[in-house]
């Protein structure tokens, strides 16, 4: 397999992780706002927690970025083909805030502080 093919696989994997994390963020925010609960909430929280552990454990950098650079990504970013850097940075920050908001609302509801 060539480096270009490996880089494509890394980018596809990154896109898949991004989609899963986006769905998890929306699910947690939905649960926080509506009070809805179900097994899907545990899965979403687990996925978000796993993302935090991997990200923080890798020095606040996505480990796929290292692989992408090793396989020839010119900009040093995994997503440089799919979206511009400024958009991905904005989405990352936005999803972080929305996830924390959802988790906060869930915790408050569990302690009976909100409806």
Please give a structural write-up.
By secondary structure, this protein is mainly α. It has one domain (3-108). It has four helices and no strands. It has helices at residues 3-34, 39-57, 63-70, 85-110. α1 (3-34) crosses α2 and α1 packs parallel to α4. The chain is elongated and about 55 Å long. It starts with a helix and ends in a 5-residue tail after the last helix.
Number of domains: 1
C-alpha geometry: elongated
Helix percent reads: over 70%
Number of beta-strand segments: 0
Beta percentage is: under 5%
Q: Report the average pLDDT across residues.
A: 88
How would a crystallographer describe the biggest sheet? none
Number of distinct helices: 4
**Coarse structural class:** mainly alpha
Residue stretches low in confidence (pLDDT < 50, at least 5 long) are none
N→C terminal distance: 55 Å
What is the CA-atom radius of gyration, in angstroms? 16 Å
Reading the helices and strands in chain order gives: HHHH
Q: What are the salient characteristics of this protein?
A:
elongated; 4 helices; single chain; mainly alpha
Q: TL;DR?
A:
The protein has helices spanning 3-34, 39-57, 63-70, 85-110. With 115 residues, the chain is mainly alpha-helical.
């Amino acid at each position: 397999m060539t480096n270009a093919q490996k880089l494509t696989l890394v980018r596809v994997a990154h896109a898949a992780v991004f989609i899963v994390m986006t769905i998890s963020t929306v699910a947690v925010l939905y649960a926080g706002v509506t009070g809805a609960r179900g097994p899907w909430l545990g899965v979403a929280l687990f996925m978000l927690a796993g993302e935090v552990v991997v990200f923080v454990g890798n020095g606040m950098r996505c480990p796929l970025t290292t692989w992408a650079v090793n396989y020839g990504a010119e900009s040093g970013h995994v997503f440089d083909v799919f979206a511009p850097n400024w958009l991905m940075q904005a989405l990352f920050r936005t999803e972080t805030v929305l996830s924390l908001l959802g988790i906060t609302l869930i915790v408050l509801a569990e302690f009976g502080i909100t409806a």
